[in-house]
Amino acid sequence: MNTVQEDGYCSRCDLCDTEVIQSMTDLLLRGLATASVDSTTGDIFKSASSVAVAVKTELENYLLVRTEALVPESVGGDEDHSDQLMKASTRPTEFLSDLIDDFVASKRNVLSHVSGFLSSESRLNKIIDFMQKMETENVWALDARKATAETILESIDMKCIFHCPERFVEQDKLADHRSQCKFRVVNCKNDGCSASFSAIHTEEHDSICPFKALPCEQLCEQHVIRCEMDKHCATVCPMKLINCPFYHVGCETVFPQGNLDSHCSKLLQTHLLYVLQASTRHNATVNDMNQRLQLVEKAQSLNEMSGTLDVRSLTLIIKEQEAKIKKLERDIKTQEAKVKKLENEFRSRNA
């Protein structure tokens, strides 16, 4: 359909909601594929491709006749038609889907009604494959489907929710209106986003656009695009909460990672004390283990454990104790190195 038409003395805007038109356009192609597949199932003389052009003409005429007759029928007082008109005016995509379903049902041959076929995976795969084939071969061109969808929408959208009904005598006024019409196509202004949509959906798109720059959810000073917000908050955000590096020796403070240097500087002496206390605890543990080892060795020499342990199990126990002692000694050396490093840092800061 042309975007500007002459209707008597008036020029019509004719812009439509692109999202609705796209949905209706997709429905038309799927409806044609479904009707073509179902009408030739099991027929050795016909294929979906051989009937597609004729079925397209039938489907298009059927839909145009049904939608154009909807308003007169509802005005005649038929309650069912009035309900259909209400549905068409508020949910045009759903209404079109119902019409297409009725048409497809009328095209099914006997074999298509075989129990289980209509819900079979094989049928669905055939429909999808044929849709792709029709798109490749341009059986029902996209522009032609859009024109049909726009015609149908204008016929049923009595409340003008999804298309613009404005009319103008002068072309200049029409052009001015179209530049401001709520159904004009606009591009997303967020860097990196290539989406386009009717202007009426700008706020809706902006609320979900993955490229929209937003203030950090953890209230740091940065602005981050929506699709990278989670990664930012979990990694580089200065306000991400972390444990103190000296958590394992006793400092259980939690703070934003941007405050790490400040925290360590202010609590240098406290951290030194934690390290010294940890070293003392390790030394006590080593002494305790040595005492236990001595008792085990004494018990071995006096044969006090001969009733419960044999030589092999006793040897294993001794080796385990020795391994634990060596590990504790290594830990002590590590802690002593940390203490020396912290002492040096403390001296340098106070020099």
TrEMBL record:
Residues 311-345 form a coiled coil. GO terms for molecular function: zinc ion binding. A zinc finger (TRAF-type) spans 205-251. Gene3D superfamilies: Zinc/RING finger domain, C3HC4 (zinc finger). Keywords: Coiled coil, Metal-binding, Zinc, Zinc-finger. Residues 205-251 form the TRAF-type domain. InterPro entries: Znf_RING/FYVE/PHD, Znf_TRAF. This is TRAF-type domain-containing protein. It comes from Dichanthelium oligosanthes.
